[in-house]
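[audit] Reproducing an earlier prediction to check determinism. Same input, same settings, fresh worker. If the tokens differ from the archived copy the diff job will pick it up downstream; this log only records the rerun itself.
[audit] input (583 residues):
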Amino acid sequence: MKLRKDEEKKPVEQLVLPAGYNIINGTTYLVDRINNLKVVMNDSYVPYAFVKEVDRQGELEKIEAIRLINSENKIITIKTDAIFGSHRAFIDSCRLNGLIIFEESAKDIKQFCTALLKDPEKYFPNKHLIAKQSGFVGKELAFAFPNEVIQKLDTDSTVIHPSINNILKCAVEPKGSYDIYREKILAPNAPNIVKFLIIYSLSSMLLDFADVESGGFHLYGPSGSGKTTGARLAGSVYGRATAPDRNISGRSYLKQLNLTDNAVEPLFPLYNNLLLIFDEFGKLITLDLSAFLYKIGSGAHKIRTNTSLELVESEPSRGFILTTGEISIAQALANANESNQAKGKAVRLPSILIKPEYFETDEQSSHDYVQEVTKVITNNYGHLSRDFIVKLFNYVKTYEDVASMVEDYFSVAFYNYIEKLEPKTSIENRFLQRLAFIHSVAQIAFELGVLTWNYDDIDEAMMFIYECWKSEDSNTMTDAEVGVKNIINFIKRNAHCFLDAENDDIWGKSDIIGYEKGNNFYILPERFERLCGTAHIDDVLKLLSQKGLLRSDKGKRVKRAELKAVGKRAYYYVLSRDILSEI
């Protein structure tokens, strides 16, 4: 499929000009009522295209600019605001776009442009639609990457990629050999973590076509665990995924979170329908981590005012997120004194612990495998996403065909997951919904010949990540459940360290974790509250009471007791010895 790019120049056929205008010997004239010729421009700039913005719903009403082209194929762009503004603004706009005009001719050229705008469909042979964000634009088969647009050529308009900085344009420019990339990265024996990350990255491109919430995954682990390698592999689907802190030129597809809250917002439209990757979550500069998680999970923007003090609401972006860090999201929230489960934060960015052994293959150690794939993606990247879109567009006829295909595959995959895994909570149901969507896109990519992994390979990779997710308590348990589990595990590990409340002497003992008396454990308040973690202590106590494990004075959370070992009355959290038989 041919790529339709901004630079492509279609010839101007059957030139039509507004009444009174004509081109003679390369000069644009206006013929007045008595047939006198007045020079408008000393060049044959003629109508080439009118320009509108377009979002996922279609083109917007306002014409943003017009484009004129001369005999040497030089195109100038003039904004409509300048045409209907002052002479000085019009002159400055023309000069910025390469057309040098003077005060005496500004009025005549403005009149010429105004006449063209009265019936743009008649005078302009082309229509250019500037994408407001990356990803699918309009209700047609056009996908805007930050540096180019892939579009079927049987449409009457040309979509142009969003206007962005050169750093991201360079980062998403495909480089190297796609064959080498496919041979090594998409190898049949690739580790499950690699399969999942590649599939996950690719699936973000079709997120518009399924009722699945945005959000993502957080890869965490100590230095050397492979989390940044995972992020780089996922980023290689779209572009140059070098580690941001080791990239001297700055042209990396990956981003670092040494950004403020507001600095992240402009990134969303540039990565719409792509994968937005933040390396090193610990560098995040924000006062409200919870709000930030919702923002990167939903792609929602703030409603802002324009220069006319009118409220302007940008269309939310749709795409997946991938973050990395040395600690889990739950721990990051705990460090920020925020709950890790409230309002569904965990399912928006669930944590996956990355281990070096995840990158082992039958033939290679994790160290050797990581070294090899790092060399491959350093020099070969950005091809897989383009291949997917091209083959998808060649397979379907309309935008609606894509929507129908994704919906059908997703419905089947989600039903199979529900039947197979029987989710117990809404959190697990939402996670399986996202997993089913990723699975469905993988199946489509395999059938189109984009992925080399078959149905069994895809299933295995999905189940691998599901088991990783299930093993993380903060992903599947409420704060109170995690707190209770912490307390139970603590008592099980240290039951032999509790002092005998009747016989032991506390003198000379500096680190006392609690006491035991009869069938109860007496835990010091400070110790108990630390074990609750991010959970509210009342929620933990309520859950312990429901299990029949809590002993307390009537109307109180604690029990006041005098233990011989202590020699005075004090308050304790008292738990039944039956707690040892829990979990």
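[audit] rerun output stored. Observation attached for the diff report: The mean pLDDT is 85.
[audit] end
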